[in-house]
Sequence to fold (623 residues):
Amino acid sequence: MEFLPKPKEVKLQKGEYALCYDGRIVLDRRLIGNGDTYAKVLQRGIQKETGLQYEIGYEVPGKKDSKAIELKLDETQRSQQYRIKVTEQGICILGGDGAGVLYGVQTLCQMIQEYGALLPAVQIEDEPDLPVRGYYLDETRGRVLTLTYLKQVADRMTYYKLNQLQLYVEHTYLFSGLSEMWRDETPLTAEEIRELDAYCAKLHIELVPSIATFGHLYMLLSTKSCGELCEFPDSWKEPFSFWNRMQHHTVDVSGGKAIEQIKAMIEEYMALFTTDKFNICADETFDLGKGKSKTMAEEKGVHRLYIDYVKELCEFLVSKGKKPMFWGDIICAQPELIRELPKETVCLTWGYAAEQREHEAKVMAEAGARQYLCPGVGGWNQWMNLVENSYKNITRMCGYARKYQAEGILNTDWGDCGHINQPDFSLPGLIYGAVFSWGEDADSFEKLNEQISRLAYGDRSGKFVSYMAKTAECSIFDWWDANVVYEEKVLGHPNNRNALFDARIQDETKRAAAHETLVALKKELKKTAREMEESCRYLVSTLELTMDAIDIWNETGARLCDIEDGKEKDEAACAALAGRLEAWFMKYKASWRSISKEGDLHHIAEIVFWYADVLRGRRVYGK
Fold:
């Protein structure tokens, strides 16, 4: 039996139970209200996998219906715990609370997906290792996903028993009085946030607000209206830059004005959410103490400036009845400072390396911090998520979470320089987080990917995720490289290339091997198309589009290196490549717009078309 995540105990029994055309889903009367949501989830699952249309009703005392699937509360079980009994006489799901009932429903849906309408008799008992199993989605630095797609994310999360969602926002909420910040964007509205909050709540997903409040306030501090709040002067005079958006734009803590603006934004935003939590981020404050606050930093120390500012925001949130959260990259250097923050505060300890060390988790635990461990799905700055890297990273971080008694996992999906990867390809990483935060019993990378291919992508062959993983390995000139070169040549930014950059990009043998691998993968992908469920087949063309992206950009990088080195230019070949790039980007834009608002698509287009123009000779390289 295949389950994602695996239940703690599965005992197969003798016999089987057949779902029937006149079956019913019967709810415990104590589930009146949200129980209808659980029943409808099960109803849709049965209809999708078997074609049977189950009716929904409430139990009648003293009456037993052998054709019914019973959903019941059982106060003897713990929160999120559930039990499933499938016998020849019927099916019963018992949950310690509503979440437990829902998780039992999702496990039964996975059984039905595997076995259809004839289910083996079985008894399942299950509960999670970690109470909080979250997903963190960048909704600001590139894509602003539509409300419809965000609801699909919530549906996926609940199917794999995740229970917290955070959307990262810098400037992509329609804050009142800050139109100069979001005027060139397509921000989320209050109505959209409220609707998503209610949708998530029915699925026992806590929607937690998360906004930048210290570093990473690029769009706010790039306005004329609020530029004075930036650590460095005249920030609003600089042209748009993905690199600067990542590296600079920290608020000035010395003047006292910035924190009042931030508090006003927090208060406006938190009113939209029902949760008692709020993530102030406060990470990567690279410029702190280097500009307007330099004198204060020399007197007090940069860490003192940092913790005093974070403490004031945390205390403000606590006064409003909220539990603060913040990223732990700065405080890990002086973990004892956590004791100065309100006891309600949660440190989000992150790390994304495949061989991620445990040092940060250890020192924060020893300092007495409440913490979540935060791995990543490995999609940022890549056309295809780094699938194997994310598997290794997530398994390690979930292990550290158990070792150091973390309160939860918050699995991150960042956007960085434009969020150019297809969000559907973050699903393996999302599932890795769900699997390893629920329990320690999980399969190898290859076997788990086969299960994900079948269960999540509807691929009976079990190969789809392996194609994704192999595609990621073919990337040589990735989006980060493309952006670095563009900003160096067009914006005059410092050369951020490493010493091996040109050698790597110009390695003809490596590029030819990557091309051959992609060609072979495309053929295998097309064979697999017939093995996929109809609702998932669109992903075949989406993956092929991503394979083409990697192939085209690998060749583009090599051609640009040749031009830079002054080698004789093959005009016809370069023009043909420019045409491929432009034709590919037309399809890419259509894919983007099918699930996302415009967001930063226009900034991505500027970079793509610069490369096409350089290849054609319309622009001189370096200008």
